[in-house]
Design a protein that fits this description.
single chain, alpha+beta, 2 domains, 3-stranded antiparallel sheet, 5 helices
Protein backbone atom coordinates (compact mmCIF):
# COMPACT_ATOMS: atom_id res chain seq x y z
CA UNK A 1 0.00 0.00 0.00
CA UNK A 2 1.29 3.44 -0.87
CA UNK A 3 0.41 6.17 1.59
CA UNK A 4 0.02 9.75 0.44
CA UNK A 5 -0.45 12.83 2.54
CA UNK A 6 -1.31 16.22 1.10
CA UNK A 7 0.24 19.09 2.99
CA UNK A 8 1.60 16.73 5.64
CA UNK A 9 3.00 18.01 8.88
CA UNK A 10 6.76 18.34 8.40
CA UNK A 11 7.77 17.01 11.79
CA UNK A 12 5.16 14.29 12.12
CA UNK A 13 6.69 11.01 13.31
CA UNK A 14 5.68 8.04 15.36
CA UNK A 15 3.77 4.76 15.27
CA UNK A 16 0.13 4.38 14.38
CA UNK A 17 -1.95 1.34 13.34
CA UNK A 18 1.04 -0.92 12.67
CA UNK A 19 2.91 1.70 10.64
CA UNK A 20 5.89 3.95 11.38
CA UNK A 21 5.88 7.54 10.11
CA UNK A 22 9.01 9.67 9.90
CA UNK A 23 10.29 12.78 8.13
CA UNK A 24 13.23 12.35 5.76
CA UNK A 25 15.10 15.68 5.49
CA UNK A 26 16.96 14.94 2.26
CA UNK A 27 13.79 13.86 0.44
CA UNK A 28 11.79 16.57 2.22
CA UNK A 29 8.89 14.16 2.72
CA UNK A 30 7.14 12.27 5.45
CA UNK A 31 7.57 8.55 4.83
CA UNK A 32 5.62 5.59 6.11
CA UNK A 33 6.69 1.98 6.49
CA UNK A 34 5.21 -1.09 8.06
CA UNK A 35 6.30 -1.81 11.59
CA UNK A 36 8.46 -4.95 11.58
CA UNK A 37 7.03 -8.08 13.15
CA UNK A 38 10.05 -10.21 13.76
CA UNK A 39 10.21 -13.08 16.20
CA UNK A 40 12.78 -12.64 18.95
CA UNK A 41 15.83 -14.64 17.87
CA UNK A 42 19.41 -14.86 19.04
CA UNK A 43 20.69 -13.18 15.85
CA UNK A 44 18.44 -10.17 16.51
CA UNK A 45 19.93 -9.80 19.98
CA UNK A 46 23.44 -10.14 18.53
CA UNK A 47 22.80 -7.34 16.02
CA UNK A 48 21.30 -5.19 18.77
CA UNK A 49 24.46 -5.65 20.85
CA UNK A 50 26.63 -4.70 17.87
CA UNK A 51 24.50 -1.62 17.14
CA UNK A 52 24.80 -0.44 20.77
CA UNK A 53 28.56 -0.98 20.74
CA UNK A 54 28.97 0.97 17.48
CA UNK A 55 26.83 3.81 18.83
CA UNK A 56 28.98 3.91 21.98
CA UNK A 57 32.06 4.75 19.86
CA UNK A 58 30.56 8.24 19.39
CA UNK A 59 32.82 9.69 16.65
CA UNK A 60 33.92 13.31 16.86
CA UNK A 61 32.02 16.04 15.04
CA UNK A 62 34.98 16.61 12.70
CA UNK A 63 34.97 12.91 11.76
CA UNK A 64 31.23 13.05 11.11
CA UNK A 65 31.71 16.13 8.95
CA UNK A 66 34.33 14.32 6.87
CA UNK A 67 31.91 11.41 6.38
CA UNK A 68 29.12 13.82 5.35
CA UNK A 69 31.40 15.53 2.83
CA UNK A 70 32.65 12.18 1.53
CA UNK A 71 29.09 10.87 1.09
CA UNK A 72 28.00 14.05 -0.72
CA UNK A 73 30.96 13.75 -3.12
CA UNK A 74 30.19 10.07 -3.63
CA UNK A 75 26.54 10.86 -4.42
CA UNK A 76 27.60 13.57 -6.88
CA UNK A 77 29.81 11.09 -8.75
CA UNK A 78 27.47 8.08 -8.68
CA UNK A 79 23.67 8.37 -8.87
CA UNK A 80 23.22 4.75 -7.78
CA UNK A 81 24.38 5.52 -4.21
CA UNK A 82 21.26 5.22 -2.05
CA UNK A 83 22.73 5.63 1.44
CA UNK A 84 20.48 7.99 3.42
CA UNK A 85 23.11 9.37 5.81
CA UNK A 86 26.75 9.40 6.84
CA UNK A 87 25.93 6.93 9.60
CA UNK A 88 24.80 4.29 7.08
CA UNK A 89 28.11 4.59 5.26
CA UNK A 90 29.97 4.47 8.59
CA UNK A 91 28.18 1.24 9.58
CA UNK A 92 28.85 -0.27 6.15
CA UNK A 93 32.55 0.57 6.49
CA UNK A 94 32.76 -1.03 9.96
CA UNK A 95 31.14 -4.25 8.72
CA UNK A 96 33.56 -4.31 5.76
CA UNK A 97 36.46 -3.85 8.19
CA UNK A 98 35.26 -6.77 10.31
CA UNK A 99 35.00 -8.95 7.18
CA UNK A 100 38.51 -7.95 6.06
CA UNK A 101 40.14 -8.35 9.49
CA UNK A 102 38.11 -11.04 11.35
CA UNK A 103 40.96 -11.86 13.77
CA UNK A 104 41.51 -8.24 14.82
CA UNK A 105 38.05 -6.65 14.68
CA UNK A 106 34.96 -7.84 16.53
CA UNK A 107 32.09 -5.36 16.35
CA UNK A 108 30.55 -6.81 19.53
CA UNK A 109 33.47 -5.51 21.57
CA UNK A 110 34.98 -2.67 19.50
CA UNK A 111 35.74 0.59 21.29
CA UNK A 112 37.16 3.96 20.34
CA UNK A 113 40.29 3.21 22.39
CA UNK A 114 40.83 -0.06 20.49
CA UNK A 115 40.52 1.77 17.15
CA UNK A 116 43.19 4.29 18.19
CA UNK A 117 45.55 1.81 19.92
CA UNK A 118 45.48 -0.79 17.12
CA UNK A 119 45.64 1.91 14.43
CA UNK A 120 42.61 0.45 12.64
CA UNK A 121 41.75 1.81 9.17
CA UNK A 122 38.39 3.22 10.31
CA UNK A 123 40.09 5.96 12.35
CA UNK A 124 39.66 8.41 9.44
CA UNK A 125 38.04 8.54 6.01
CA UNK A 126 41.48 8.82 4.40
CA UNK A 127 42.80 5.62 6.00
CA UNK A 128 39.54 3.77 5.21
CA UNK A 129 39.81 4.70 1.52
CA UNK A 130 43.50 3.78 1.41
CA UNK A 131 42.70 0.40 2.98
CA UNK A 132 39.96 -0.31 0.42
CA UNK A 133 37.01 -0.10 2.84
CA UNK A 134 35.55 2.90 0.96
CA UNK A 135 35.67 3.77 -2.77
CA UNK A 136 38.28 6.25 -3.96
CA UNK A 137 37.08 9.76 -4.81
CA UNK A 138 39.16 12.84 -5.66
CA UNK A 139 40.07 14.83 -2.56
CA UNK A 140 39.80 11.97 -0.06
CA UNK A 141 43.38 12.76 1.05
CA UNK A 142 42.12 15.85 2.86
CA UNK A 143 39.58 13.94 4.94
CA UNK A 144 42.01 12.93 7.65
CA UNK A 145 40.27 13.99 10.86
CA UNK A 146 40.36 11.14 13.36
CA UNK A 147 37.55 9.43 15.19
Amino acid sequence: MKATVKEGIKGFSGKLDGAIYYYHPRLKRTLMRRAPKMPLQEKNLEYATIAKQIKAINPSEAYRSDFRNYLNELRDRDDSIRLPSWYSLYIKMLWAMQAKYPDTVDLKTITREQIIEQNLPCRSVKTAVEDGLLPIIPGYQYMDREI
